[in-house]
Design goal:
The structure holds two protein chains of two kinds.
Chain A (H helix, E strand, L loop, with lengths): L6 E5 L4 H12 L5 E4 L7 H6 L8 E4 L2 E4 L1 H11 L12 H27 L3 H26 L12 H7 L2 H11 L10 H11 L2 H6 L3 H9 L5
Parallel strand pairs in A: 1-2
Antiparallel strand pairs in A: 1-3, 3-4
Chain B lengths: L5 E5 L4 H12 L5 E4 L7 H6 L8 E4 L2 E4 L1 H11 L11 H15 L9 H10 L2 H19 L15 H6 L1 H13 L10 H11 L2 H6 L3 H17 L1
Parallel strand pairs in B: 1-2
Antiparallel strand pairs in B: 1-3, 3-4
Helix pairs in contact in B: 1-3, 5-6, 5-8, 8-11
Classes of the chains: A alpha+beta, B alpha+beta.
């Protein structure tokens, strides 16, 4: 019952994982209370909602906590299946493709990219960057396959994969300055570049993604978690 | 000619491949098992899984699905009228997926979770063993919370999370025997230990487990190889 649903999102303004959830909630037209967290001084609510990892984002729906951004996306899709667009396709086989590539984005893109950021040596940084750019190339091919000439990984409409990657857009763009390498490159990944511009133009993205300038300063200060 | 039927590309000693067999048998789905030599992978495997080239792969009417946890959800959805593997309730489903990630994946800081807290137990020796055993136990104690008050992770009957972590019930005691470490004990992990026994008694599990002596021999040899490398 829409009128009785209480949704609370615990996040940090800088977190791309929280951005994913904001995008999803916006696409579904769901209202929620956003509670900014201080990760240096974690709140009781955060610690009790996510005792295992103590991290953001956490979605609290009528008092029940759901953790991990991709798990939250699937939850929103299922719990609010009757409202707004569906993120995952209906066909079981298509769903495996979406889930595989979303996990790929987390494991083969986000992890090496985070390593590049936190790297203590030039070698570590270069290795992280190399893996991230290889992932970009792979995703360029996937976009070509999945979109079948349409606008998004999900086809005509934004889908699970789009949200999984879309939440990271501002972070990936601000990396370019710091790492001296482009993630979205009009020459090397033209489709991905177009996709990024299109996605960034969506209302859901505009309200959910970070301010680029603020993020650069934050990242330069070693703020990535 | 359109390819029909269900094939599992796996390896007899692989705990990830066995998940698929458990899921398919719960659904009473007939399948062909292709045992791969991982040192000499078949053309078929490489054709079906060019991205990671790993087992297991499920091929359903010619279409390949990869990543065992994703495959188990696929099996549940493709044969939706059979045995229910995932819980029905969205919140319970989210919990099952959360714990499956905790068991299987790296987190985004690259910190490995349960599986990779368990792997080091295999080769750790001497003083280092105590430390890795403790870390493995900590991980498993956290996982054990999902078992509280229940016969199985899935409730009264096995479900998704049981299939994902079920390999511990058979492989962990073997790892313990091979390495001399003691991880899952009545004192440290009573719920987990009790669940091991219940899980191993489930029909689809009993039917598919590889022979213990063969698995023990393989892992003993593998450990020696790793320690002398």
């Amino acid at each position: 019952m829409a009128g009785e649903d209480e949704l609370k999102l615990l996040g940090t303004w800088a977190s791309p994982w929280a951005s994913r959830v904001k995008i999803a909630l916006h696409l579904k037209g769901l209202s929620y209370e956003y509670v900014e967290q201080d990760l240096d001084n974690k709140s009781e609510l955060l610690l009790s909602s996510n005792p295992v990892h103590k991290k953001v984002p956490v979605l609290i729906h009528n008092g029940k906590a759901i953790c991990e951004s991709l798990v939250i996306l699937e939850y929103i899709d299922e719990a609010f299946g009757a409202i707004g667009p569906s993120f995952l396709p209906a066909d079981p086989y298509e769903r495996t493709i979406a889930r595989f590539w979303a996990a790929y984005i987390d494991n083969k893109l986000a992890i090496p990219w985070a390593q590049a950021f936190k790297a203590n040596t030039e070698e570590e940084k270069a290795e992280g960057l190399k893996q991230t750019l290889a992932a970009a190339e792979m995703l360029e091919g996937v976009l070509k396959e999945c979109s079948k000439g349409k606008l998004f990984f999900g086809g005509d409409n934004v889908g699970y994969m789009d949200i999984a990657l879309g939440g990271l857009i501002t972070w990936l763009q601000e990396t370019e300055e710091l790492c001296g390498a482009k993630f979205f490159d009009t020459a090397k990944t033209p489709l991905l570049f177009e996709w990024m511009e299109r996605f960034s133009g969506l209302d859901a993205a505009k309200v959910s993604l970070q301010d680029g300038g603020r993020l650069v300063e934050f990242a330069k200060g070693g703020g990535l978690r | 000619m359109a390819e029909k039927g269900v094939k599992v590309f796996g390896m007899w000693a692989s705990p990830m491949a066995i998940r698929l067999e458990w899921a398919l048998r719960l659904k009473s789905v007939v399948y062909e098992y292709v045992d791969e030599d991982l040192g000499n992978k078949s053309d078929a495997l490489l054709r079906y899984n060019p991205v990671t080239k790993k087992v297991p792969v499920l091929v359903h009417d010619g279409k390949p699905v990869v990543e065992s946890a994703i495959i188990v959800e696929y099996i549940d959805e493709a044969w939706k009228d059979g045995y229910p593997i995932m819980p029905a309730d969205p919140y319970e489903r989210a919990q099952a997926r959360f714990w499956a990630n905790f068991a299987d994946e790296k987190d985004l800081n690259g910190f490995v979770q349960c599986n990779a807290a368990v792997y080091p137990v295999f080769t750790a020796t001497g003083e280092a063993q105590g430390k890795v055993v403790h870390e493995a136990q900590q991980c498993l104690k956290t996982l054990e919370k999902a078992l509280e008050g229940k016969k199985f992770f899935g409730g009264d009957a096995v479900g998704y999370l049981d299939l994902v972590v079920g390999w511990y019930a058979y492989w962990l005691p073997i790892i313990e025997e091979v390495s001399g470490a003691s991880v899952v004990t009545d004192e440290e992990l009573p719920l987990m230990k009790a669940w091991f026994d219940r899980f191993l008694a489930v029909d689809v599990v009993k039917e598919t487990l590889p022979p213990r002596d063969k698995l023990l021999a393989l892992n003993t040899a593998r450990r020696e190889q790793l320690l002398t490398a």
